[in-house]
Amino acid sequence: MQSKATTVQRVEIKAQARLRSLLKDYFVNLDSAATDPARKVAWCTSVGPCEILTAFGFEVFFPENHGAMLGAKKVSHRFVPRAVGVGYSAETCSYMNSDIGAALAGYSPLQEAYGIAGPPKPDVLVYSTNQCREVQDWWYFFGRRHDTPVMGVCPPGHLGEVTEEHIAFVRGRLLALIQQIETRFDLRLDWDRLREVVALSSRASGLWRELLETARSHPSPLTFFDGLIHMAPVIVMRGSQQAVDYYEELLTEMQDRVRDGVAAVPDERFRLYWEGMPVWPKIRELSEKFLNLHAVIAASTYCNSWAFEEYDGGDPLWWMAKTATEIFINRDEQTKEVFLLDMFRRFDIDGAIFHNARTCPNNTNSRFGMAQRLRERHETPVLVIDGDLSDVRFFSTAQTMTNIEAFIEQLEERKR
To answer: H helices then E strands: how many in the chain?
Structure first.
């Protein structure tokens, strides 16, 4: 299939201007906290126990977000060799390697974006290995660099059924983390404040889920690529009223789009699913390719990673433990497959794209036969593309775009 020279015009999301302001305030506040002796900064993994840290009064920074920014700026490959030079394998997480390398080089995209020096110096680094073990090694590098304590939670992984015993175990580790923080910093957790933060976290996550669900409409009012932009508050501002307010506004805009039939991809013809990590350095090119092919990526595993179940007002640690243990990346192949088939059905998916991210095996699900099973058992068209979440050297633009065009041709044949 030959791409047409003319380009399709997308409809801009109005709330994006507010998002830019929110993120600037968030990062400037972090920078201020890092230079104020009366305030403390914690680093946390993206699906880690940030609610506990917020309830203690820490300002919370998420290094994975910084890794994604390095990828989106198309500079990760410049800094990965710096990490390799101090002993980190080039085959491991490019988020981690580029973040370590950028720190060694004294570079941060935050300098240009928000006028601040870079990531705030941490007072404590807190991780959860529910997404991968690499975050533990990543955090320990910066713990040594800043002479800062590192604390973590290691939930049981690769689970099928999540049992009450699993959740109780993780709850116990969260309680131990609270006790560590109290001892180290001479603090006492305000449990009412934790319940408040968890309720806000749950509310923002619930709104995010509702927002993603609007893409079940025909035509879809938003795409996976929109989600990659607008997911920021549910990660870095989780547990705040600002995140809740933002998603209420954005949800209203998407509901208006559904009512008025406004399409994220004009003349939508194909509905696709994205499985795996984004290709951050190629987001614009991929977005434009699918737009011009009139194909909307209506749903993804990645954006749904922060669409948590609702908090019922009970034990906040139980909700946190359950949420941390049940996430998609922490489940076995059979559970993941069932989840994907349900998503395909609910979003009327015509075909799925699996991203084989070279340095992210934990969030790549095309390596153990799943794509083939979906094709053979369920007659779901699947395209596997090779690339990486951050290191552009693993991605062939020409080959990938040709494969995407051929895949859309395949879907066209099925519609005839």
So the answer is: 17, 8
293 φ, ψ (degrees, to nearest 5)? -90, 5
- pLDDT beyond 50 at 351: yes
Tokens of 415: 């519609």
Are 350 and 411 contacting, i.e. CB atoms less than 8 angstroms apart? yes
User: Each residue of 132-187: pLDDT tens digit?
Assistant: 999 999 999 999 999 999 999 999 999 999 999 999 999 999 999 999 999 999 99
pLDDT, tens digit (0-9, with 9 covering 90-100), for 361-382: 999 999 999 999 999 999 999 9
Beta-carbon count within 10 A of 246 CB: 24
Q: What is the DSSP letter of 216?
A: G
d(CA 299, CA 328): 14
Tokens 């991605």 sit on residue: 395
Q: Which of 373, 363, 413, 334 minimizes the C-alpha distance to 161?
A: 334
Structure tokens at 47: 């699906």
Q: Within 45-190, where are the H helices?
A: 50-56, 63-72, 76-85, 94-105, 109-114, 134-146, 164-185
Please tell me the predicted confidence (pLDDT) of residue 1.
41
Question: 303: which 2 tokens?
Answer: 């954006």
0.85 exceeded by pTM: yes
C-alpha distance from residue 375 to each of 32, 33, 214, 277, 337 (Å): 52, 51, 27, 21, 12
Examine residue 219 and say whether the peptide bond preceding it is cis (omega within 30 degrees of 0): yes
The percent of the chain in helix, strand and coil, each rounded to the nearest 5, is 55, 10, 35
Please give the single-letter amino acid code of residue 295: A
β-partners of residue 60 are: 42
